[in-house]
Amino acid sequence: MKALVFEGPNELKLRDVPLPEPGEDEILVKVAACLICGTDLRIFRGAKTRGVRIPSILGHEFAGVVEATGVNVKEFHVGDRVGVAPVIPCHTCFYCKNGLENVCANRTALGYEYEGAFAEYVCIPAPAVKGGNVYHLPSNISLEEAALAEPLACCLNGHHNSKVKLGDVVVILGAGPIGLMHLQLAKSSGASYVIISEPNEHRRAIAKEFGADRVVDPQTEDLNSIVKNVTDGLGADIIFLAIGIPALAQDALTLVKKGGTINFFAGFSVGDKAALDVNLIHYNEIKITGTSAARRDDYRKALDLIAKGKVKASKMITHRFPLDKAEEAFRIAGSSQGIKVAIIP
Ligand SMILES: [Zn+2]
Ligand SMILES: [Zn+2]
């Protein structure tokens, strides 16, 4: 089969590799679409990432059709449309037993320890099949839309940690794919006013289209006074950092109201550190939370939200490329030209 093989920083090669043969508890999936994640981009550019091997096949945001099943697999059949939650928890560690399987001490994932889906086919390993990581797709969503369930599940986990309530004012820093999903989730959760700050004009226009009450260009407008104006000088209830720029961490502390919540959703580049006026956290009783990956149940809910039209998945996928145009696909994904870029094998 054809696969994009990651052979080192900036080396993504289209190769002919052996078609995986599913073991007795495994499933072979014909990939219909695999989206490029910000993490794939960072890996491609050389960021050392736990679990990523060289050479290996990346890609963890995907959906497809069952091509073959192992003899022990009863729940899935050839031709079934499936999506896969790529993070495979161990089910037995402290975190798995306490509702935090997304930060499982022994977690593995497709596109990391296991071969991913930037390929014609992907083999779903036994721990994922037996562990309930594979989902039948609702009939009214396309395979491409289903590929968005993984990043959406991570955003849902961020909301789980931040708890947007009816009437909240929410500020989202960054209107990339993650910021746009947080926007749609915040609106669905009952936020009364969502402000998105984003320097790119095209992305601001999309945020407006997706329901942002106010889009702000941080290069020419004063986000702080805009937030204070709509909150009677108090500040926002919740801030989502949807872009990993260290200076924004301190900005967030001045945008949030006393007792409010900041979610450090985006990861920073390894080694990046933010200087924080920690007295703001202390005196203002600010809650700070992070988000890492997603639980299997977040994935199930994400599929459901897409199926019910709460998140405009098809509008989020703006570019599509075949495997042999991967270079162009990664270039577009790394620019601000589109939102989500799909590889269609
Ligand atoms: Zn991802
Ligand atoms: Zn575990």
- Whole-angstrom Rg: 20 Å
**What's the CATH topology label of the largest domain?**
Quinone Oxidoreductase, Chain A, domain 1
N-to-C CA distance: 10 Å
Total E-strand runs? 17
The average pLDDT is 96
- Low-pLDDT stretches are none
Strand content is 25-35%
Provide the number of structural domains.
Answer: 2
Highest-level CATH class of the largest domain: Alpha Beta
How helix-rich are the residues, as a percent range?
A: 25-40%
CATH H level of the largest domain: which superfamily? Medium-chain alcohol dehydrogenases, catalytic domain
Element order, helices and strands? Answer: EEEHEEEHEEHEHHEHEHEHEHEHEHHEHE
Question: Can you put this structure into words, describing what you see?
Answer:
With 345 residues, this protein is an alpha/beta fold. The protein has two domains: 2-148 and 311-343, Quinone Oxidoreductase, Chain A, domain 1 (Alpha-Beta Complex); 153-290, NAD(P)-binding Rossmann-like Domain (Rossmann fold). The protein is 31% helix and 25% strand. The strands form four sheets. Strands 3, 4, 5, 8, 9, 16 and 17 form a seven-stranded mixed beta sheet that branches. A six-stranded parallel beta sheet has the order 12-11-10-13-14-15, with helices on both faces. Strands 1-2 form a two-stranded antiparallel ribbon. Helix 5 (149-162) crosses helix 11 (296-307). One zinc ion (ZN) binds next to helix 5.
